[in-house]
Structures are given as C-alpha cells and as structure tokens.
C-alpha cells in the first residue's frame, strides 16, 4: 500500500505532520511519500500541481492531503492558483464521489450554534457528486443577449448538465454507503424547476430498484437546507449534485460546531481516494501551532477504511479521538470553559498516546 502525502500550504503542513505520526504508531505496512502541492509547489516548480506530484498521486492507493492556498496568490492567473491543484487532482484521478460525514461528538455539543438537543448524537453523511453539474457544463461565458428580458445587454451564462452514467454511479455509491449505516438515502434535487434535476430524480429512482433494502426519499434543495437546521438527525445519507452538495455540506459542517473536526474523502471508481480536512489552509493561524489536527487525523481514518481496507485501524483512530475529547483536551477552535486548551502538537501527542494506550498526562 502506498500513500501520497501532500501537505500543501498554511496549516496543511502542521496538521498533516500529526496525521502521519498517528499513522506511524498503527504499525501497518505502508509506504508514504511526500510531494509539494498548491502554493508551495508553485514557489518551487512554478505550478500548483507539478507533473511529479501528479505522478505520485496516480501511483498511490490513496492521497492524504492537507490544504492549499494563501491570499498572496490571489493575483496569479487562475490556472496557477493553489486551489487549481485540487481541481486537477479530482480530474486526473477521476474522483467523482465526495463523502463528508457530519458527526457531532458528545463532548462538543456545546460548540454548535444549534440547540444541543437538535444535534446531540448527529451522524449524517453527505455524498456530493464532484465532476458534473453547472460547475463544469459547457457552454459557459459572457455574451450579448439576443433574447430574455434585456436583449442587447451584456449577460453571463453557465450550463447545468448531468449524464445518466454520472447520476447512476453516484446513486450506487450512496445506496452502498447507506447499507453500511441506517439504510436511508435522501436524494436532494430541484426537480420542480430544473430539467437536469428531474432527470437526476428519475435516474436515482431507477437505480433504487437494485437496493430494495434501502429506503429512498426525495427532497427539494430549499427544503433540505431548512431541514438541516430544523431536524438534522432525521437524515442518514444525503446524495446530491455538485452545486447543491457544495452548499449543503458546508451548512452541515457548521452543525457540528467546528470545521476543524470534519474529515472528507473523494473517491473514484476503483476506491482510490483523496482524503483531506474540510477546511482550508487557514493563513490567519498558520505557523502558530494552534490549528486543530483532528479533521486531518479523522481523514486518515477514512483513508484506512475506504481505500486501504483497514477498518480496525480506522476504528482505533476514531476511538482515540473520542478519548482525547473525553479527556477534556481542546484546540482553540473547540475550546470552552472547563476544558484544557492545547496546541496542534499536543493534540497529536494525545491521539498517539490514546492509540498506544499510554496515559495522557496533564
Ligand atoms: P479556512 O477554512 O482556511 O479558514 C476559515 C476559518 O476557520 C479561519 O478563521 C481559520 O483560522 C479557521 N480554521 C480552519 N481550519 C482550522 C483548524 N484546523 N483549526 C482551527 N481553526 C481552523 O478558509 P478561508 O480562510 O476562507 O481560506 C483560506 C485559504 O484556504 C484560501 O486561500 C482558500 O482558497 C483556501 N481553501 C483551501 C481549501 C482546500 O485546500 N481544500 C478549502 C477551502 C479554502
């Protein structure tokens, strides 16, 4: 098994270092090789996703990714900006299914802006299609309007589209994932207004015939956005398109209190995956040793479960994280009165200690 380690920029290097220490103590046989990506790769090689980094990612069974970006690159031409590395990796590795679990840990119930009774025990999984939809549909651009409300005016347009194979494969991923959970899928669409999403709904309904043991319901995206804050625990697996998934997964992230706790996985058809925290490179706190490494450590657990077929090792990491939270250790983003504030390294130390069953001191 080979893992490509791409720490990236900002806090990426700090949090990935902790995830690697956690992987190291599991005593599993895999090879890890690091490469530059994002701004760091641009500085060294003039491109955010150099050929050598892409080659390493292609040859690996999984990619452990930190975060990329910094405000200082905002003036670069778009293809050279750090964030393009993520789009490039998604495209070249064929990553079409993004998994974002939103789990509210018992000890962090108070960190959410929602009432504790709404989110205590929350455990939902949002599956977002990553390769289609209005983000990639052609044609797109600017032109002079020939019709509409203002003929002759300047206008911009994008194209929303999904093909049958794209919808079928993401639907299958969702039904398979639900089989390992509470066996319920909510497909989110806007079928009442958009042809693309009436098609989405029809195809998901057809695929569902192969999964009679899983319950399927359909929900319009506006209602889903509302239900996520009204009664989020009613959901099990949510499957949706690229744009709706982009928005709903961030909304779900905030249910749990801190983006510093949320892992994510993007998988291709052969279960090769890119695993990364849901947050960015946090330039405001980079280099200060205060970033929460748990989202990245939990991403490493997802990597073990989905791409490296080591579910027991994944369980060990996840229970170690629960253990350190129960010990009252908190990085600044999840700190509250009565808990002990620790830095990035100390949090990593505590997870390592919990895995190796050493006593956590202090
Ligand atoms: P961000 O997620 O980096 O930060 C948002 C806020 O959350 C900041 O206040 C930050 O300090 C805090 N935060 C984020 N992760 C944290 C952690 N692990 N522990 C504690 N606090 C944490 O989003 P942003 O500020 O909008 O973007 C910063 C840069 O990251 C930009 O260049 C953006 O393009 C990039 N970005 C990259 C990714 C990615 O690599 N996948 C995703 C989002 C944003």
Structure summary:
The chain has helices at 12-24, 39-45, 51-59, 84-93, 116-119, 164-179, 195-208, 221-230, 242-255, 294-306, 311-326, 344-355, and strands spanning 2-8, 31-34, 62-67, 97-103, 123-129, 141-144, 154-157, 184-189, 215-220, 237-240, 263-267, 273-277, 329-330, 340-341.
What does this structure look like?
With 362 residues, the chain is of the alpha/beta class. It has two domains: 1-96 and 268-362, 3-Layer(aba) Sandwich (Isopropylmalate Dehydrogenase), CATH 3.40.718.10; 99-263, Isopropylmalate Dehydrogenase (3-Layer(aba) Sandwich), CATH 3.40.718. The protein contains twelve helices and 14 strands. A ten-stranded mixed sheet has the order 2-1-3-12-11-4-5-10-8-9, sandwiched between helices. The protein has a two-stranded antiparallel sheet with strand order 6-7. The chain has a two-stranded parallel ribbon with strand order 13-14. Strand 11 (263-267) and strand 12 (273-277) form a beta hairpin. Helix 1 (12-24) packs across helix 10 (294-306) and helix 6 (164-179) packs across helix 7 (195-208). The chain is globular. The two termini are 37 Å apart. Bound molecules: nicotinamide-adenine-dinucleotide (NAD). The site of nicotinamide-adenine-dinucleotide has 22 residues, from loops.
